[in-house]
Design a protein that fits this description.
It is a single chain. This protein is α+β, with helices and mostly antiparallel strands. The protein folds into 3 domains: 4-63, Nucleic acid-binding proteins (OB fold (Dihydrolipoamide Acetyltransferase, E2P), Beta Barrel), CATH 2.40.50; 66-137, 5' to 3' exonuclease, C-terminal subdomain (DNA polymerase, domain 1, Orthogonal Bundle), CATH 1.10.150.20; 157-206, Ubiquitin-associated (UBA) domain (Helicase, Ruva Protein, domain 3, Orthogonal Bundle), CATH 1.10.8. Helix content is 47%, strand content 19%. The protein is built from 8 helices and 5 strands. It has helices at 32-36, 66-75, 83-92, 95-104, 117-137, 157-168, 173-187, 192-206; strands spanning 4-13, 16-21, 24-29, 44-54, 57-63. A 5-stranded antiparallel beta sheet has the order 3-2-1-4-5, covered by helices on one side. A hairpin with a 2-residue loop joins strand 1 (4-13) and strand 2 (16-21). Helix 6 (157-168) packs across helix 7. It starts with a strand and ends with a helix.
């Protein structure tokens, strides 16, 4: 596994850089923001990297710091989000912005990224909300927001957030509200991630 490289910039092309490390050239794909801030030819560069091997391609993805690499790894865990789409996201949103939006369940900026769309943005927020909250509490991501106790009222903030996430996934508002209400009545207070997952199961049974 190649997790970090340091060497001289010897060539660039849109979205990637060729780095000379001890006489070996590593072609590294970069988010646009990292590419835009590359040092001049011949100057030294340091990158945190992730090697991804597929049947038809071996790719090395590079990032300016370990924080951005960590967010990239988290993104590609989401179903339907591959390395290319994750790079698109990190080309538009800084890691702190992205993690903050995910933790809040705010898809506004995420769905504006080329290739993402409403359903993928909602899936990113649903699947990664818990991880995002933990990352916010770690060094380098600032301080996390205070946890809010779940409400059992279907019109409460927690239920509204769950309904909103389901609507973003393509469900109608009324059926989303019924599913969320059903889960709360049967199981009582749940955290937002579990509430959404249980509501999705209810909706799947209805379908």
């Amino acid at each position: 596994m190649i997790g970090y490289i340091r060497g001289r910039v010897i060539e660039t092309q849109q979205g990637s850089v060729l780095v000379d490390v001890g006489g070996i050239g590593y072609l590294v794909e970069l988010p646009q923001t990292t590419f835009d801030s590359l040092p001049a030819m011949g100057e030294e560069i340091e990158l945190y990297t992730q090697l991804i091997i597929r049947d038809d391609k071996i790719s090395l993805y590079g990032f300016p710091d370990s924080k951005t690499l960590k967010v990239f790894k988290v993104l590609i865990e989401v179903s339907g989000v591959g390395p290319k789409l994750a790079m698109n996201v990190l080309s538009v949103l800084a890691p702190d912005e992205l993690i903050s939006d995910i933790a809040k369940g705010d898809t506004t900026r995420i769905k504006s990224v080329h290739g993402v769309g409403k359903k993928t943005a909602a899936r990113i927020c649903v699947d990664l909300k818990e991880k995002a909250s933990k990352l916010l509490e770690q060094a380098g991501f600032g301080t996390g927001s205070k946890r809010v106790a779940p409400k059992t009222d279907v019109h409460g903030d927690l239920a509204d957030d769950a309904v909103s996430a389901l609507v973003n996934l393509g469900y109608k508002s009324q059926e989303a509200k019924r599913a969320v209400s059903s889960v709360i009545q049967e199981q009582g207070p749940l955290d937002i991630n579990q509430l959404i997952k249980e509501a999705l199961q209810v909706l799947a049974k209805v379908k």
